[in-house]
Amino acid sequence: MDHHFQVRIVGREHARYPSHLACDHGCEYIIQVVTADTDDVLLEWCTLSAEQFAGRLLEAVELSHLSK
Ligand SMILES: [Zn+2]
């Protein structure tokens, strides 16, 4: 994934891969990472899973700084 992508919020009914959402929280919205040029959905999470994923990403980034 390069930096030519966008993050957008859509209603749950617009999930690209609804069977992969693994959301039993009742989240109303989906956060999608899409390519800027072709609008392909690269990643998507329900909002709660997105928050957890973002937290893990930030932890990994912080660890990478510590290991320099
Ligand atoms: Zn959810």
Characteristic key phrases:
68 residues, alpha+beta, 29% helix, flat, binds zinc ion
How would you characterize the overall build of this protein?
The protein is of the alpha+beta class. The chain is 29% helix and 29% strand. Strands 1-2-3 form a three-stranded antiparallel β-sheet. It starts with a strand and ends with a helix. The mean pLDDT is 93.
Rg over CA atoms = 14 Å
> What share of residues are in beta strands?
25-35%
Query: What is the end-to-end distance?
Result: 23 Å
Mean pLDDT comes to 93
List the uncertain runs.
Answer: none
Name the strands of the widest sheet in spatial order. Answer: 1-2-3
State the order of secondary-structure elements, H for helix, E for strand: EEEH
- Total helices: the number is 1
Q: Major beta sheet, specifics?
A: 3 strands, antiparallel
Ligand list: zinc ion
User: How would the global form be characterised?
Assistant: flat
Range of helix content: 25-40%
Give me the count of strands: 3
Structural domain tally: 1
Coarse structural class: alpha+beta
